[in-house]
Amino acid sequence: MDEYKFQTLSPPHSTFQPTAQLTMECLNRILATMPPGFVLDSKLDLFVHLLDINQAALAWTEEEHGTFSTTYFPDYEIPVIEHILWACPPIKIPMEAKLQVVTQHQIDASNYEHSSALYRAVLFPVMKKNSKLCMSSTWRTLML
C-alpha cells in the first residue's frame, strides 16, 4: 500500500448561487427529503457542489426531459416471431379417479389450482404398480 500515494483533496465549500435551472426552492426540496443527521455537513456541501456543477442534467418538469442522441444510441427493434395460438384440451378424468388423486388438501397447499389459461401443463392420472392413481403432468408441449 506504500507504493500508492493518493493526493487528499479537501471537499469543496458550498458556494452555491441559485440559477434559473437550480433555484434555492428546488435545492431546499431536495435537501428536505434527507432525514436530519443522515448526512454530515461536509458531505452535504459536496452534494450541493455536485448538483451545482451538473445543473444542465437536472429536469424538474416533463418539458425539460430530453432523450438520448440517436448518434450514440440508435433506435432498436425487438424481433417478434409470428406464431399460431394453440390450446390443449384437458384430459378428462373420471370423478372417482379425481377424488382419489387430487384432494382438497393438495389444492389448499397450492400444489394444484384451477386454470383456464391457453398455455398450461397437461395433467393426467397414471396407474402405479400398487393400483393407486398418481397425478402426473407434462410440459412437453410448452417446451416445443
Task: Give an overview of the whole structure.
With 144 residues, this protein is of the alpha+beta class. Among the domains are: 24-63, no CATH class; 95-143, no CATH class. The protein is built from five helices and two strands. Strands 1-2 form a two-stranded antiparallel ribbon. The chain is elongated, with a radius of gyration of 32 Å. The two termini are 57 Å apart. The mean pLDDT is 77.
Q: Which percent range fits the helix content?
A: 25-40%
Q: What is the H-and-E element order?
A: HHHHEEH
- As an assembly, this protein is single chain
Q: Strand order of the main beta sheet, please?
A: 1-2
- Stretches where pLDDT falls below 50 for ≥5 residues? none
Largest pleated sheet: 2 strands, antiparallel
Shape: elongated
The residue-averaged pLDDT reads 77
Distance between the termini: 57 Å
Structural class: alpha+beta
Count every beta strand, where a strand is a DSSP E run of 2 or more residues: 2
Concise account of the structure shown:
This protein has 144 residues and is of the alpha+beta class. The chain has helices spanning 24-32, 41-53, 95-101, 104-108, 140-143, and strands spanning 122-127, 133-138.
Can you tag this structure with a few keywords?
two-stranded antiparallel ribbon, 144 residues
Strand and helix map with partners:
Layout: H1 24-32, H2 41-53, H3 95-101, H4 104-108, E1 122-127, E2 133-138, H5 140-143
Antiparallel strand pairs: 1-2
